[in-house]
């Protein structure tokens, strides 16, 4: 499913959930009814400002407009993801992972030297780890699903099983986010 089709499906679903007409949502979001209609039909190329306005009018987080069924394992390579460009500046954002309800996260910057291997025992049930490589190359994940990640790559995996982190280049740096049930 393309990002535009994903957005179209989400807008229709959320507008229906909110029991809003097309006209009411367009007015509340401050966008033209024709623009909203095109988006719901999977046409057009919305800016991040338009999507923020629609999400705000629907009283939902922006990430709801990009929801897809979640897999236990998700990997986003540096050149992948749904990119949103701003009309107002040269900003482009890529949603890597939204925070589901009833979760909490700790975020760490990790530096690891070439050849270093860090084994980790299982964390509490339901823990999920997110790794984003800032520089270097690392091998990360559960022992039965290790992934080699390059600079700019992202990997989500279960943290409630034994897993490891290994540097494959000098002074690799990655961001680690540990997400656990509240």
Automatic annotation (TrEMBL):
CDD domains: cupin_XRE_C, HTH_XRE. Keywords: DNA-binding. It comes from Kiloniella antarctica. Pfam families: Cupin_2, HTH_3. PROSITE patterns: HTH_CROC1. This is Helix-turn-helix domain-containing protein. Residues 11-65 form the HTH cro/C1-type domain.
């Amino acid at each position: 499913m393309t990002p535009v089709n994903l957005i179209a499906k989400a807008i229709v679903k959320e507008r229906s959930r909110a029991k809003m007409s097309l006209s009411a949502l367009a007015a509340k979001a401050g966008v033209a009814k024709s623009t909203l209609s095109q988006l719901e039909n999977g046409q057009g190329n919305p800016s991040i400002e338009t999507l923020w306005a629609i999400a705000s009018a629907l009283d939902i987080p922006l990430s709801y407009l990009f929801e897809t069924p979640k897999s236990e394992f998700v990997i986003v390579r540096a050149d992948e993801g749904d990119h949103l460009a701003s009309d107002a500046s040269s900003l482009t954002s890529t949603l890597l992972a939204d925070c589901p309800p009833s979760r909490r996260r700790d975020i760490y910057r990790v530096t690891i030297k070439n050849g270093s291997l860090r084994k980790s025992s299982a964390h509490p049930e339901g823990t999920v780890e997110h790794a984003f490589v800032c520089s270097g190359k690392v091998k990360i994940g559960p022992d039965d699903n290790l992934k080699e990640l390059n600079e700019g790559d992202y990997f989500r995996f279960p943290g409630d099983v034994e897993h490891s982190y290994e540097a494959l280049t000098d002074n690799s740096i990655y961001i680690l986010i540990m997400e656990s049930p509240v």
